Amino acid sequence: MHGQWAARHSTRALALKSMAAQGSEAVAEIWWITKVLVPLGGILIASVIIPLLLHHLKYVRERKERLFEARRNAYHEYFKKIESAVSDVGQEYEVFSTGGHAKSPLETSEKQ
Question: What total of structural domains would you count in the chain?
Answer without folding.
Answer: 1
